[in-house]
Amino acid sequence: MGRPYKERRVEQLPPVTHYKPAGIPLRTLEEVTLTVEEMEAIRLADIEQLDQAAAAERMEISRPTFHRIVSMAHQKIAAALWQGNAIRVGGGNFRIAHRCQTGLRHFTCRTCGHKWTLPHGTGQRCHDLTCPACQASTVSRDEE
Known about the structure:
By secondary structure, the protein is of the alpha/beta class. The chain is 28% helix and 22% strand. The radius of gyration is 19 Å and the shape is globular.
């Protein structure tokens, strides 16, 4: 019996969980499943363009483990694109890390400069917010 997998640290869940070729119903396609941690590895390596050591540190795993995860994700994506399969994102062994240790998110209005905070888990995203002072929708989230 092998040892259990360590949970991988994921900073955010993917915004989309299904991808498929246009014009073909999903029910008729074979699906390839990417785990959430494979999508996180793709995000860190290919979107944020971190080197493997930095990306592994962000996911709190070793560099060889990160390499295996991102290589498997690239292989699955390439095969799905080449064979015309659907890609489903889900499952895996991960935990969502909250960047903000205080439980609050900080926002600034780019129009009037007003600053305010909201707790995590309110269901409101930055692009859905308006400034409580001037009602402008030019809101940005401040990093801590």
